## 1
Amino acid sequence: MIKFKIIGDHRGSLTPLEQYKEIPFDIKRVYYIYNTKEGVVRGNHSHKNLEQLLICLNGSCIISVDSGTSKKEFSLKSRDEGLYIGNNIWREMYDFSSDCVLLVLASDFYNENEYIRNYKDFIDCVNSKY
Ligand code: TYD
């Protein structure tokens, strides 16, 4: 988890994010996930070569990250922190509140060819690196 600063005054709050400061990679793409229906699980993939930072701008959700050897769950519910996910990590996103807005900053353009969408292929890929 990466903690961001909150610049607040009597008018409200502002959180700045700068490449190579709060964000440890070149940002080539930004997208956001919202209107997520109850019970939905998103993600279910890893990336061969992509870094991402996930920030929950509104509401809450749970992100599970799996390296192939260990698994951890993170609860995202705060605008002043982001979850960094490097390459070769299987992720699942669930328990979205109806008002959840999940912002994703990505290190590269969208490329379906660098996704691994089958869990067994992911495990084979992890094992091939040892
Ligand atoms: P998908 O990978 O299923 O989303 P999630 O990781 O949240 O489960 O993507 C949904 C669709 O959107 C799929 O057809 C691919 C497309 N897409 C883009 O065109 N550009 C993007 O940057 C992303 C993330 C997805």
Note: The chain has a mean pLDDT of 97.
## 2
Amino acid sequence: MASGSGSNFQSIIDAIDRGDINARINGLIAGKPHIKAIDRANRHYIPVTVLDQKAPSQFESELLSLLKSLNPDLIVLAGFLRKIPDSVVDTFEGKIINIHPSLLPKYGGKGFYGEHVHRAVIESGDAESGCTVHFVNEQYDDGDIIEQVRVPVNPNDTPETLAKRVLAEEHKLFPNVIAKLLTT
Ligand code: GRF
């Protein structure tokens, strides 16, 4: 599930192509139309469903029935910006994972996404940041942590340079965690 560029989604596609993950991607659920993640799915013949409904109840029922029909072993949130409804979390308990560009529990929760995360890290003067893969529960960025990778924050970092350093680690961490989860 993705709402943006889908560079993490691509890293998972590539890991499957290399044989590092033994899996098939049954579908991309896109949180918005016209995003780069959709182009990536199309290039790899991965079916796409756009779920950009504004009404929460419609979003919830469509997501739930779509996921039930896909019957996934793992649901991967790779930059999906909308909160996952409680009924979906309950139905797929322990099967939904997310990647977040900070060392959770720091800089997580509502409003901490994209550049906002990296700006807060720099403004707080932290010497390190990183990324976290965690299980999804009913709260934003709050479920059990599976794995983290740390990166240094450099004195001259801008949100953009820090984001780039963290993202490079995300592209390794996420496929590694997925591979492990699918073999245990
Ligand atoms: C990543 O930084 C991820 O940690 C966050 O959203 C961003 C998605 O980037 N949840 P991309 O769409 O995978 O390039």
Note: The mean pLDDT is 96.
## 3
Amino acid sequence: MSNRLPWRLGIGFDAHCLKKGRKLMLGGTEIPAAYGLAGHSDADVLLHALIDGLLGALALPDIGQLFPDTDPAYRNADSRQLLKTVLRMVRQKGYRLLQLDSILVTDRTKLAPHIPEIRQNLACLLKVPENCIGIKAKTTEGTRLALPEKSISALVTVLLAAVK
Ligand code: MG
């Protein structure tokens, strides 16, 4: 049976804790905020979930296996560079990203005003039209799902198409 599918779907999830004094990077965009995200790399939760979605769509090992947080090479790594590596892998496998949809979850920081800029920057990074990039900012209405007042989490779905 051929596994050369015309389309492939992927899903990625990530979460990082908020920390005072850290830069807040989301989708390759620096967001002005009192709290950033803690992590070994720049902790860009949206790009990390996107990377896992891309890898998952191709049934490849996940971001933690590809870029281990025990490797000093990835200390304070710019997640845009990690994304470029993964986009190269997608091309090498004969696919391209058509579309993504995403949800950012936090109760601490108002993200909605920053979505247009994040979408613009992602469109540039990914070389896909802005109307193929969905980004929604959600709170949890006090349900405390994943300690949202102390973290930001991201869920991303992707659709890849085989390149002819
Ligand atoms: Mg992460």
Note: The longest strand covers residues 7-20.
## 4
Amino acid sequence: MASEEFQPLQGMSDLSSPEISIWHRIESTTRRVFHLYGCEEVRTPVLEKSTVFERTMGDTTDVVQKEMYVFEDRGGRRVALRPEGTAGVMRYIAGLGQDGNDARVYYIGPMFRCERPQAGRKRQFHQLGAELIGPANAAADAEAIAMQVQLLRELGARDFKVQLNTRGLSEDREAVVKGLRALLEPRRAELGEDDQRRLDQNILRVLDTKDEKSLPIVKSLPPMTEFMAESSRAYLQDVVSHLKRLEIDVVLNPRLVRGLDYYMHTVWEITHPALGSQDALAGGGRYKITIGDRAVEGVGFAMGMERLVTALQKDLGDAAAAPKLALIWVVSLGPAAFQENFRLVQTLRMRGVRCGLDLAGRSMKAQMRAADRAGATAVIIRGDTEMEKGVFVFKDMATGTQTELAMPELLERLQSVNLVA
Ligand code: HAM
């Protein structure tokens, strides 16, 4: 176990090679796919006034009540590290006025929730997400889901499942809460402790309980859509039909409510079996969020990138990583060859060849060992003899064969190995 001095804070991680290569592939694929759907990137600050999150996410949500990193800055202002991306984006969109009415944006970046660290739950994690602004429209909801599914397919994820439900409109809320309360209140004592608290504060959250004590009761409840107006049920059916037209399979899950307060109409989660008990790869839904005198309507989602990396490693193994350029190592026999090779390496890099060389004047054996350690595909060896003859010795590391090549052949050969390891 490395000394604590070298460790980041609990629940936070250094992201580095080799996994970072999977992150790169996720990020570049996200940018490309989301661009196809008309989204532009927005980068909002990581730190905001705490009210940005409190008013958007609802102050009875677990994230706001228990998990936000909130503190006073040096000027005595109450600020918070963003626990999710939507609230900051809504502040930004509301600030655009009319120009924000049909904005489509996406974001990629770190989020912070001071949760009890466990598998799949980090205190600093990363999300990629998108928000499609516009009034309630079942086709837009289907498009937001399609965007995520296309991303997952292009990344090569296989075993994911889209679960769909509706939260109805705010008008339905009262009937749903009343209906659920009538069924749950008589059985209050049989519910887990957290769910008894939710019964008072945010009854819908009882539905997505993970508490073994509450589960049998919750599973016996009718789907909450039964308490909703016909039009809300029809909206959900519209989303399902649109998705069918796009050949996207979904599973209706009447107990799915999502942990954030801003949703209305469609909500969904994408789950993946590689994730264990925290199996939500992504979550999203439609919302109407009021900021000052503006109401922003839209539909959006966020995907947990750590969880996505885990899912891709499970589905793809080594192929989860971004392909790398082959590495060429240049070995110098003597100081004169080093001078020439130092320049050669620069020239090759300018031609797009990924290469390296020993800068410390070590022995040939040490240089070959370094090439091996760095995972070089081929080595170019040059000493006084080669310089006199105007050639390079090209060694293929996989086969061990060595060939003497002049510059034009060397470049040709490099082009063929440079394609990707
Ligand atoms: P969320 O469900 O809170 O939704 O988070 C979305 C995803 O972020 C989760 O499905 C999960 O993969 C990942 N995630 C959340 N918390 C953690 C954690 N502690 N450690 C690792 N991964 C985590 C939202 O954040 C909404 N803003 C989504 C949205 C956008 N709805 C509308 N627009």
Note: The CA atoms of residues 81 and 138 lie 33 Å apart.
